[in-house]
């Protein structure tokens, strides 16, 4: 029986971070991964999707260059070249997540599926590993919904989409969340016909005020949007597929992409044998990410369900979880997870960023002391100069001026998110008084913060005081 101080199941963003921290502190670490090192983010998620989006944005920029007096021929899409770019991005980052790098750190890397066989033991590759502490970071997988006919139809998820050796003739996307929206726009800008089906409205989690600019951009890109539409059935249609909507509308496509959400990978982990409480939402943990039923075990990343908050399928949350676990598990210090300032971004063009809760979420939680300020990007000089001034910055603060949440839609929304993540819980005066370089898109954040104080500065009382002051010598 092999002993280890820390056993980590899953070599994705969360597991790799925990393993690196633990090994760096001199602990004996065993890392188990049944598939590719780097997990979903590197191989099927963040990296390939953003690489594909970069190619799509380049094609879109070429088509719009005439607005600036630069006349270019219509771009020719070399799909093999696009795929090479995506593969190159993965290959460039892969060494950071590689087995060789972690072995050099002193980590025992076991390339096999792992499962709990006791509250203090894991079995993998025919060996049993006894651990002092274990971290489950097995991630999540795309949900395959129970659509009639789906079992007889070939379909794609994010795990298979990037392996296509030819561009889809007509990509039908089911799901209007971040993955569905990003991939719909990317393929449309790369010359594919695209239809997107969403049972509610696109970007359903985001502030409703942020949706209109994105919807307009998708329609301009040629994406056929079907919002408020249920998929009733799918079937083969010659070499392609047919999707039947609830109202009888038939959409004929060549490829079907499912992007309706993600579910934690719980199967095969032997959680019951490990005495680890779990539900379809993930492994039940405290706010310190410790299992509620097995004190030897922690959970991190997409598989963790801390005090019913539910999973957050973001790579930056994996890093946040690793920090919480390092503090609580390794140093035995108090730690408590909070998503109050959590940013999330949909990397479309325009992008949507949400930092902290939306206005609707705050009101649903019973907050009534809200002050809303807005600044349109049409008033931002940099974006006007670049011909991209569509969008909005919206801030939600309490009556004392403390920032509670921020919503952004526009070019570079994700780059603005970091500023707001630092500002959550702080007074808007710091942001309103910041000296930012001109001209930048981030000035919109400063102007939105300044709007909180504008009514006070322009009040009759202030004007009376200024009237008295101007009489002084």
TrEMBL record:
Membrane-spanning intervals of the chain: 6-27
SUPFAM superfamilies, alphabetized: FAD/NAD(P)-binding domain, FAD/NAD-linked reductases, dimerisation (C-terminal) domain
Top-level taxon: Bacteria
Sites where the protein binds NAD(+): 175-182, 198, 261
Residues in FAD/NAD(P)-binding domain copies: 5-308
Necessary cofactors: FAD
Disulfide bonds: 41-46
Ligase among keywords: no
Record's keyword annotation contains Membrane: yes
This protein's UniProt keywords: Disulfide bond, FAD, Flavoprotein, Membrane, NAD, NADP, Nucleotide-binding, Oxidoreductase, Pyruvate, Redox-active center, Transmembrane, Transmembrane helix
Cofactor info, note text: Binds 1 FAD per subunit.
Domain Pyridine nucleotide-disulphide oxidoreductase dimerisation, residue spans: 343-448
Protein name as annotated: Pyruvate/2-oxoglutarate dehydrogenase complex dihydrolipoamide dehydrogenase (E3) component
